[in-house]
## 1
Amino acid sequence: MRFYSSIADHYSEIFPFNSAQLAFVQQAFPNLQQQNLLDIGCANGVLASKLAPLCKAITGIDLNRKMLKKAHKEIGFKHPNLELMELDMMHVSAHFGVYAFSGILCFGNTLVHLTSVGQIRNFLSNCKAVLKKDGKLLLQILNYDRILDEKIDQLPLIENEALRFHRTYQQQANDKLIQFKTTLQLKGEALSMENEIPLYPLRQKELEALLLEVGFTSLRFYSDFKQHAFSSGSYALVVEAV
């Protein structure tokens, strides 16, 4: 996927490790050392590498080959119970089989890269199939209720000593999808990298209905990884589904 290949070399600077994600996973799995986890959309593999010493085993998958090469180079061979592989998120059931994992993580707004309700339903059904009995699915996307209802057209600027990362949304009146556009500017260089990708703006109630439809029975919705209550004004939507 060209969108992520172009920023792969700068991904860690744009999106540094979020310790709240690690704490959230640890809270979700009190007996983490006994858990076999799957990290879908693992990107540079940093979260998976942090979890590797703490759990029984973790597999990280991503569709972007350049991102995975960077992950392999930086952290991929340092943990014997960590495996990183190139795999389409729609193929997890076919590849791993049923009851393969006790937990699945899908963070970083990965889910909404699937561009139809049918695709999202099939993905969630795949997740349910590969989870063991009482296994947990942990999801995180942006709160698209807020984005759609308030007609938000840009996300907060990401800026540090090395770069500026601009993110905007373009909503089309007759199109369910929204266009996510980014511009990466490296400070001290004239070059900027622009990208665009369609996303499906999944509402909380829509996601809730799909999770229940594919067989999850216990759902918790939060506004962040610190488990604050979800509301219409929340920046993000975090889900724990069993």
Note: DSSP finds nine helices and eleven strands in the chain.
## 2
Amino acid sequence: MSTATKPKHIGRNISRIRELRGMKQEALAEAIGLSQQTVSSIETSETVDFEKLVQIAKVLGVTVEAIENFTEESVFNFFNNFYDNSANNGAQGNTTNNHCNFNPLDKVVELYERLVQSEKEKVEYLEKLMNGK
């Protein structure tokens, strides 16, 4: 049995992260100012120029390290843990409900009153300008 690890295939990692994000090659290409064919070529390359990798990471909303260290197992572990934790919180009867600390209607009224006051101030200012001429 071989203990050698496979070299990291940065292009394949970019491809998988892009797919998980629901992004097409054309969209990624446009965002970084390249052609779709160039992005396709990048995704088949084992290594990627660091500056391009930084641009791609920014567009994909991840870090360069996330691209370099991406594995399918880590994605599945993340989603499984997320699902398990969400399910357990509900199943255990944990009553950590999210409640507003304020009444939303009070906020609407407050904003409306501020808007009315602002309009009154505008009217007063315009009347003052008109009387000054």
Note: DSSP finds seven helices and no strands in the chain.
## 3
Amino acid sequence: MIEHTSLVRVRYAEADQMKYAHHSNYIIWFELARIELMRSVGISYADLEQKGYLLPVLEVHVTYLRPARFDDRLKILARLPKKPGAKFRIEYEVRNEEEKIICSGYSSHGFISADYKATRPPRSFMQALEPYF
């Protein structure tokens, strides 16, 4: 299993009139955490794309438990619980400064080639993850 925590602060532009973080921002924060999770084990999304691999989102799910507010500092835990194949799932938890879980969710991804056909992950991707599984 791989885990990585990313930190964000809710910006004014991310809040609605009630000063709550808009629900759409959580998916953006999931993406930030997913990219940093991969980077933490030496995998760069940009490098994968340059090599002709794309990782579209196949599914995303979010459960909102309590609101995040403007200027809150949040911790986004991203977790890759199982060794990936052509498809994989990343789980997320968003916690506030009091360490309360305010949101949880997951996203599922699949590898495709530059010509948009399903493909296996590159060997370099699998080798980078091998020590963790």
Note: The chain has a mean pLDDT of 96.
